[in-house]
Design a protein that fits this description.
The chain contains 5 helices and no strands. It is mainly α. The protein has one domain. The relative contact order is 0.10.
Length: 95
């Protein structure tokens, strides 16, 4: 596990825009938006990082990282929806 200081140093922050990250989940959400190349929707990732189970988000992030997708944000949301339904149904598929 990396220290928060190291994580914050790895940002690619625009000096014109002031970033105010004070919580760990905000840091995670911003890094996720950077990785998915979807900074337009970083508010969605902030909400997800704050309210969703982190292991679920990590599983989806790893799935998207391995895929060669044009729209990584869309793929992330699609896979998240699938895993939520699977978790809700107890892992049993409905036919």
């Amino acid at each position: 596990m990396q220290s928060l200081k190291r994580i914050l140093k790895s940002y690619q922050i625009d000096e014109d825009k002031q970033r105010r990250i004070s919580r760990e989940w905000q840091d995670y959400a911003y890094r996720l938006a950077l990785e998915l190349e979807d900074l337009e929707h970083k508010a969605i990732y902030m909400r997800l990082a704050k309210n969703e189970d982190r292991s679920l988000l990590e599983e989806v992030r790893i799935f998207v990282r391995g895929a060669n997708a044009k729209n990584k944000g869309g793929l992330f949301m699609w896979k998240l929806k699938q895993l939520r339904e699977k978790k809700k149904d107890g892992g049993v598929k409905k036919w």
